[in-house]
Amino acid sequence: MRRPSRETAQSQRRITRRGLLLGGMQAGVLATLAFRMRYLQVKEAEQFRFLAEENRINIELIPPTRGQIFDRNGRIIARNVPAYRITMTRKDAGDVEAVLARLDALIELSPQDIATALEDLRTRRGDTPITVADRVTWEEISRVAVNAPALPGVTPEVGLSRTYPLGADFTHVVGYVGPVSDYDLSRIDAPNRLLLMPRFQIGKTGIEAHEEERLRGKAGTRRVEVNAAGRVMRELDRQEGKPGDDLQLSTDHMLQNYTQSRLGDESAAAVVMDTETGDLLAVASSPAFDPNLFVNGISSTDYKALLENERRPLVSKSVQGVYPPGSTFKMVVALAALEDNLITPEDTVRCRGHLEVADNRFHCWKRAGHGNMDLHTALRESCDVYFYELALETGIERISAMARKLGLGERYDIPMSSVHAGLVPTRDWKRAARGEEWVIGDSVNASIGQGFVLASPLQLAVMTARLATGRSVSPRMIKSINGVEQPSGHGEPLDLNENHLRAIRRAMFAVSNNNRGTAFSSRILTDEYRMSGKTGTSQVRRITPAERRAGVTRNEDLPWNRRDHALFVNFAPHDAPRIAVSVLVEHGGGGSTAAAPIARDITLQALYGDDPPLSAYPAKDRARISAQQERLRDLRPPARDDRPTRA
Asked: Coil, strand or helix: which one is 138?
C-alpha cells in the first residue's frame, strides 16, 4: 500500500536528526582520543621514554642443581659448592673497557682475565652475560655490590661449582666437569640456552660426561624487572627447574682408595668385581691426577705435564687400555677344547721347551721344557707348548667363540669414557682388517694370549667372574638413580659343562696354592679366603739379535717402555666366589712377581673390608706388609658421614 507523502517527509526528518546526533557523538569520541593521543605522544613522551629505558622485563634462566655422585655406602664423590663470580652484559655496560677498568680497581683482575672478558664480550650476543672473574671472595663480591651504580652491566652472582672431595681416587671413573667451550658447542646442533650461561659446567670425561643429561637437570625461569643499568628491581614470576639426578655408584670408596694407593706410581690398572651382582667395587688406573684441576680450566703448564708423562695419567687403563692378555688367556683355550670334546683333562702333551710349526720355532717360557703336561699341570705351571698343541687342534674359530662367551671382545655399557671392545680375532677379521689369510702361526700366538688378541683389565675381570660362577655376569657401575635400584649384572647360566669348569678352577687354585704354581709366593693363608688365579706375561717386543750380542738377555735389562706387561687374574674365596680381580702392570715384567702380589693384597682388603691380619700372608712377607699397611693408612680419606644434600 502506498504511504502518504506527509508521513514519508516526517520519517526522513527523524532519520536525519538521529544521524546528526550519532555523528556528533562519534566526532566527540574521536576528538577525545585524538587529544589523549596528542597528550601521550607529545606532552608525556619524555616521561614514557624514561620509563621504557629505566625499566623492562627480562626472562632469565635459573640453572638447575647438578646431581651429586656418591659411592655404594653414601660417601660423596662429586658435590656442588657455592661459588661467587662477577658477570658483565655488553648491551648494559656501554663502554666496556671503562667499566672493566673500574672493576679492576676493585678486585684486581689479571691481564689475562681482562683480555678473555673483552674477547667474550666481543664474540657473544649482547644480552649474554659473560664471566669476568670466577671464584672471587665474599669481600670482593661486597665491594662490587657497594659500587654497583658505577658499574653498569656488572652483576655479582652466587652459583654452584663442582668439587671432588676424594681427589684422584675416582678420577678415571667419575671424570670431571669444566666450562662449556666453543668445541663443546660445535658438537651440538642446537645448543641448550643453558650451555650459553657464563662458565656453565658440563661433564668432560667419565660418568660426568656419559651421564651429562641425567646429571644436568632442567633449567627453571624467572621474570624480573630491571633498570637501565641491568640491576634487578624486582622478581615478577618464578618457575623452578628440575634438579639433576643423584647417582649411587657400585664402587666402595675405601676399597677404591686402597686399590689406587696400592698401585702406587706404577703404570697400572686394577678391577674388582662382585661375582654375584656384577658390581664394580673398584676400578683403578695409575697414575691418576686431581680432577679439581680441570673444573675451572687447567693451566697449560699442568696440562702439558700430564700430557707428556710417559705413564699416561690421562688414560683410564682399566677400560681404555687393551693389551695382549698373555697366559691369562689359556683358560679360554682349554675350555674351548674341553667343550668340543677334543681333549680330556687327563690327556698329556710333552713339552721339550719349544714346538716346531711351519719352519718356525715357538718357545716355552721354560727353555728346558716341562716334560709331560696334562691340563691341570699345564695351567698350574703355565706351560706354553701344551697350549700351542691345543690351539692347533682346536682352531681359532672355536677359541674365539669361547672367548666371546667368557666376555672378551665385548664393549660393555658402563658410563666411563672410551670403553674399548678389545679384539678377539677370527679368520674373517684378519681377511677384512689385514687383507691376509689366517695362518697356523697366528693360532699358536693366540693360544698364549699374544698375536692379535687384545683385552682390557675390565674384560679380564668379567672373564674371571664367569669362570668362577658359570654365569654371564656383566659389569654394573651405577647401583641406583635417585634411590631406585638399577638392574643387576647377575647373568644367566653360560651352558658350559660344570665338570669342565671345575677342572679349570682346580688348576687355577693350584696356581696360587701349590708350591709349583706360578703364583704360590702370593698365596693367601686364611683357609676360608684362599684364592684361585692365573699369572700372565705379555711380550711388548722381542729382544733383537744386536741386543743379545750386547748382553741384553733379561727383561729388566731393557728400557722401561720395552719390558713385558705383567698380568694376574683371580677369584676368591675358591669354594664360594664373592669377588673377581684383574691387575695389569704395564712393563712390569713377570705376572707372578709384579701383578700377583698387588692382586693378592687387593683381594684380601676386599674380603676383610679393612686391613687383613698379618697371619693371612706368608711369613716372609709380613714385615713388608705391616709397613705397607701403615703407609697406605695415611693415604685414606677420613672416615666421616657426608651423605649428599641438595644445595
From this structure: helix
Q: Using CA of residue 363, residue 369, residue 374, residue 378, what is the dihedral sign? A: negative
| Grid coordinates given for 542 | 722381542
What is residue 493's DSSP assignment?
B
Query: What's the CA gap between 410 and 107, in Å, rounded?
Result: 54
Burial class from Cβ neighbours inside 10 Å (0-12, 13-18, 19+) for residue 291 reads: buried
Contact 314, 381 (CB under 8 A): no
Task: For residue 472, indicate whether it is catalytic.
Answer: no
Contact 538, 589 (CB under 8 A): no
**CB hemisphere CA count around 362 (13 angstroms):** 25
CA distance to 258, 381, 611, 624, 627, per residue, from 630 (Å): 12, 34, 10, 10, 5
The CA distance from 87 to 97, in Å, is 14
Give which of 176, 170, 187 is closest to 281, Cα–Cα.
Answer: 170
The DSSP letter of residue 130 is E
Nearest 10 degrees: Cα torsion 68, 72, 75, 76: -20
The rounded distance, in Å, linking the Cα atoms of 529 and 518 is 19
Neighbouring CB atoms inside 10 A of 527's CB total 9
76, 275, 559, 627 from 264: Cα distances, Å: 23, 26, 20, 14
334, amino acid identity: A
Consecutive H or E run containing 393 = helix 384-394
Rounded Cα gap, residues 642 and 164, in angstroms:
13
Task: Flag whether pLDDT at 224 surpasses 60.
Answer: yes
CA dist 68 and 532 (Å) reads 38
Cell of 572: 676368591
* pLDDT > 70? residue 448: yes
User: Model-level pTM?
Assistant: 0.85
Give one DSSP letter per residue of 323-357, joined into a string.
B--GGGGHHHHHHHHHHTTS--TT--EEE-SEEEE
Q: Are 621 and 609 in contact (CB under 8 A)?
A: no
Beta bridge partners of 279: 476
- Dist. CA 222–CA 80, nearest whole Å: 22
The β-bridge relationship of strands 579-585 and 268-274 is antiparallel
Residue tagged active-site, from 285, 316, 318, 327: 327
Q: Which residue shows C-alpha cell 692382586?
A: 599
Q: Which of 33-47, 126-140, 483-497, 582-596 has the lowest mean pLDDT?
A: 33-47
Helices and strands (H, E) in the chain, number of each type: 23, 21
User: In 473-621, which ranges are continuous DSSP H helix?
Assistant: 498-513, 545-549, 596-608
Question: To which H or E segment does residue 81 belong?
Answer: strand 76-88
pLDDT band at 644 (very low <50, low <70, confident <90, very high): very low
Question: In whole angstroms, what is the distance from residue 222 CA to residue 540 CA?
Answer: 60
- Amino acid of residue 450: Q
